[in-house]
Design a protein that fits this description.
Rossmann fold, Single alpha-helices involved in coiled-coils or other helix-helix interfaces, 7-stranded mixed β-sheet, 3-stranded antiparallel β-sheet, 19 helices, binds nicotinamide 8-bromo-adenine dinucleotide phosphate
């Protein structure tokens, strides 16, 4: 029996993200047609949930396509990779038309999205949208990073603005409601059209890269507080609670506070964090961000360091062996408790500013590389609510780019320059202390090296370039000649006078 085309939106992939986003859509009055490869999952979902807009359970992709009003809009929340192509092809075979829209909301590589936009053109409009905020975000308001065909965006915009997280217009603070069926009314939606050709998935990737370093910096603050001051989880929870009441106020600091307060469900006496194995996993978006930074020659060194820190953590068994063989300094607990807690806070904040500076600099280069035209204030704006990196200081980043969208680096904004100025003494002290006491704090150290590198008028790369010319005739520029004029010296020619040759 043919279905009546009454559903507003289709959604394929009913794992954690798909179910929650479907409910979010339906809470906002949209009638959502849902399909899942494993039919039982769909049946159970539709039987259990009764959101206001309604769910239309579909056992086949054909049924889903037939149930949608035109232009059809189908959201994919399937595993990133080949599944996205498989489902898109199924949708086309099932009757999607050239103006119908397939929105990939998974964590797809932006170059795959660029390829898919081209590959499926004429058969459907393939659109990419980053979604951040995990399952709770998907359910009650994520940060949404859409990119693709601008005409398709006109059809998606009202839906995206309805389901996105909201922030207060004046303060930029998230407005949250976690009541099913009672979404937030009013506020500024955390979504903005980012551009064509994978722009949405690119920004989502950089968001995730920033998330990696943000988390690593917090983890390093934890190891310093523990190793230098002997702090235990309840006290750590108090420290993070206090930190959340200032510039560091953020979702990641809040969940860290809560994690430290969590008792272990097995050993009633202890805290869960002490029983979690110190081996971190990763799904790849941090690595993609770092590879992209390397490809484009942007020194997002702290983001890469955060990825390597997870790689180091994963070498658990090797580290256990090495810990018995490799010596280091003895760790004595420091007595200057309050002073040190404050210094670690400053180090965390300064490092965090550098991390965001790297992420935004990367997006600036990505913009050039792919011909996008990013509004960086708007990007910071949509990170203020819903997403994992939501933080009070994103309002300040938004203000910095509102003052100057052409800002070359966040560190050059007067506000952030001033913040670093205030915290850098403590930052240096903490990094030095980590080094002298043998505590691994790679992200704090890398962020400080980034800061010092960026503010150096002269770096020792003159020697690097001379070495490159010596062994490989790679040429060098001179301080007393115009940029772009290259020279080569025959460094070792035996018996011949040394002549510097100007290269075209
Ligand atoms: P998963 O990434 O675990 O994907 C599982 C879903 O994809 C299931 O519903 C599965 O159906 C379906 N699927 C697969 Br796999 N292959 C399929 C195919 N060939 N045809 C149809 N359906 C297929 O789910 P998730 O964790 O909800 O994430 C969904 C997307 O959102 C991913 O790209 C993820 O990276 C992204 N994301 C996740 C989070 C998060 O916090 N989890 C946050 C932000 C973004 P089945 O039931 O038959 O196996």
């Amino acid at each position: 029996m043919a279905r009546e085309a009454t559903a507003d939106v289709g959604l394929i992939g009913l794992a954690v993200m798909g179910q929650n986003l479907a409910l979010n859509l339906a809470d906002h009055g949209y009638r959502v047609a849902v399909f899942n490869r494993t039919t039982e999952v769909m049946k159970h979902f539709v039987a259990t949930e009764k959101p206001p807009g309604g769910l239309v359970g579909c056992e086949t992709v054909q049924e889903l396509v037939a149930s949608l009003a035109r232009p059809r809009k189908v959201i994919l929340l399937v595993k990133a990779g080949p599944a996205v192509d498989e489902v898109t092809k199924e949708l086309i075979e099932a009757g999607m038309e050239p103006d119908d829209i397939v929105v990939d909301c998974g964590n797809s590589l932006w170059t795959d999205t660029i390829r898919r936009e081209k590959e499926y053109a004429g058969r459907c409009k393939f659109f990419g949208s980053g979604v951040s905020g995990g399952e709770v975000g998907a359910r009650f308001g994520p940060s949404l990073m859409p990119g693709g065909d601008p005409d398709s965006w006109k059809h998606l915009e009202p839906i995206w603005k309805a389901i996105a997280a909201k922030v207060d217009e004046k303060t930029g603070r998230p407005i949250e409601s976690y009541a099913p069926g009672k979404p937030v009314v009013g506020g500024v939606p955390c979504t903005t059209y980012l551009g064509p050709n994978g722009a949405g998935h690119y920004v989502k990737m950089v968001h995730n890269g920033i998330e990696y370093i943000d988390m690593q910096l917090i983890a390093e603050a934890y190891t310093l507080l523990t190793n230098l001051l002997g702090m235990k989880p309840p006290e750590l929870s108090e420290v993070f609670d206090r930190w959340n009441d200032g510039d560091l106020d953020s979702y990641l600091i809040q969940i860290t506070r809560d994690i430290f307060a969590q008792h272990d469900p097995v050993h009633q006496e202890g805290y869960l964090v002490d029983y979690v194995l110190d081996a971190a996993g990763q799904k790849g978006t941090g690595k993609w961000t770092s590879v992209n930074a390397l490809d484009m020659g942007i020194p997002a060194s702290s983001i890469a360091e955060a990825v390597f820190a997870r790689c180091m953590s994963a070498l658990k068994e090797e580290r256990v062996v090495a810990s018995k063989h490799l010596d280091g300094p003895r760790r004595a607990h420091d007595e200057r408790r309050d002073e040190l807690v404050a210094a670690i806070r400053d180090a965390l904040y300064c490092s965090k500013i550098c991390a965001y500076a790297q992420g935004f600099e990367l997006m600036r280069e990505g913009e050039k590389e792919y011909g996008w035209s990013f509004d960086f204030a708007a990007i910071a704006g949509i990170f203020r609510g819903g997403c994992i990196i939501r933080a009070r200081f994103l309002q300040k980043i938004m203000e910095a780019y509102s003052r100057d969208n052409g800002l070359v680096n966040l560190l050059l904004d007067p506000y952030f320059g001033d913040q670093i100025q205030k915290g850098q003494r403590s930052w240096r002290k903490v990094v030095a202390l980590a080094a002298t006491t043998g505590i691994a704090a790679p992200a704090f150290m890398s962020a400080l090296a980034y800061y010092d590198g960026y503010r150096s008028e002269r770096l020792p790369a003159n020697l690097l370039q001379a070495q490159r010319d010596y062994f490989g005739a790679h040429t060098y520029e001179r301080t007393d000649a115009p940029r772009g004029t290259f020279f080569h010296l025959d460094w070792t020619a035996p018996g011949r006078p040394q002549v510097e040759i100007r290269r075209p």
